[in-house]
Amino acid sequence: MHSRERHTDAELDEHLATPLATQQRLVHPKGRMSAVETNQNQDQDQNNPQHFSMALKSFLMKSSTKTNTNLYDHLTQVLLKIMDERPPDAVDVFEDISREVKRAQFESKQSTLRDMSEDDPAVTLAEQQRSLFIFPEEQDQEDELLEPALPNLTQMAHYLEQIGVGPGRGELQRVFLALRQLVKNNTLPRCRFWGKILGMESNYIIAEVEYREGEEEEDERSEEEEEEQEQSKGEAYGERDEEKEETEIDIPQSTYKPPPVVPVEAPGTGTNKCVYYVSKEPGFPWTKLPSVTPAQITCARQIRKFFTGRLDAPIMSYPPFPGNEANYLRAQIARISAGTQVSPLGFYHFKEEEGFEEDELPQDSYEVNPEFEGISAAKLSKSLSLWVHHTQHILEQGRCTWVNLTIKAEELNDEEEKVEEPEETAPEPGPPLLTTLAQDAELFHTPPWTLKISSSLTPEHAVAYVRSNLWPGAYAYAFGKKFENIYIGWGLKYTGGGYSPPVPHPPQREYPSGPEITEALDPSVEKEQELQDELVVKEAVKEEMEDETDEEEDDD
Hints:
The chain is an alpha+beta fold and 556 residues long. It folds into 2 domains: 2-104, no CATH class; 140-214 and 259-418 and 429-489, no CATH class. Helices cover 40% and strands 10% of the residues. The strands form 3 sheets. An 8-stranded mixed β-sheet has the order 4-3-2-1-12-11-10-9, with helices on both faces. Strands 5-8 form a two-stranded antiparallel ribbon. The N and C termini lie far apart (167 Å).
């Protein structure tokens, strides 16, 4: 008996060690045996140990109809887990291990975390900005030379935090590194962070650069190319007109002459006093904006468009804008600068030039006043008379300096027949430089400026600032002898409150019902027949009376 049991255990161990695929081949071909076959084979199993072990193994490998697993595989995994972990008192934790093995089979092995896409915008931006933080040791001396041309954005970030404005220290630090690259690559004399204009797809970071001689050559070349294109077009149209005159009948020509074009201000003066570069993000390439024309400024005042973030995007508007988004952006920058660039009273003063009297000094001839000692924040936050404009006002012509267009009209009339002499136009006056903010006019019953102070509890350490209500997003702050202007917004001017449609009138009351408006009921058949009979009788009586009158007239 004992030898038989030992032999059976050894055979079971041998079968447990066989692979699963081999074990499945040893299963009964039919998969299941009936009860009769089982009873018949019990006696044979007792005499044949190998057949008994195979029958036992086939029973253990029966798959469950619910979970599609079998006891043989489950026991194998449980025993392997026990042998790997070797827990103390394995008999006591056998059920827990069995439960863990079952649970592990039904847990999803697929990770719920999404794979990071290769073209992640954050990674792309970080790789683009990596060059901002790499500087060779040899450039230390060059950086010292660039310091006077760059603004102290770290100090600027501190003051902007005090007044609750600005993109933040981190972004301003990246902007500073980008400005340093711009100054170094283009050898610019002075650069300033003008601000940030928001767009639908991307934003514009704007740098204001002082004009330097020689930059007008590129603009002149572009203007000459445009003139050549216009001349070639005119010659082509002239040839077409000659061909038409030979083949067609003479048609009356229009005598309308367009008004003379307002000339563009020279680089370094007026609206083109400074040069502007834009970039989508710090680390991205800088793009120089073209010079602005009076026609573009005049049209920009009549339209209202959001920026897309693409400089080559067309401007679909009425009236048609003469240019693309780069020209529209440049026009809006000129308008915002002319209306919001302010400074404390006394920081600038007019230059004293020989040969000019005080009244004849050029409008843009001002310089920093070395004797300026600063104004306290408490005073700056209470009076608009202590803030002045230091950028020229843009006239209705789209220029900062008025130009007489009648002279050009006279020149054109001299070449052709003079029909009417043009009326002389008076020069358009504009507010002079260093005019106080108290003289600015209201718009839509809204004051143009709002004065604030960063802290009323400690005014001796506070920062005074002024906010523009006509150009939302424009700020100027002052602390001691320092001040700065910044604009962060959509680049659109305030146009008053939103339109609200009028309340409709109350509905009218129903008309009072009465017999004069009440519809009568339809008569019955009997009443209708009676009415017809009465009408027949009346007509008969009327005919008799007419006959009698005719007979009387005949007798007479």
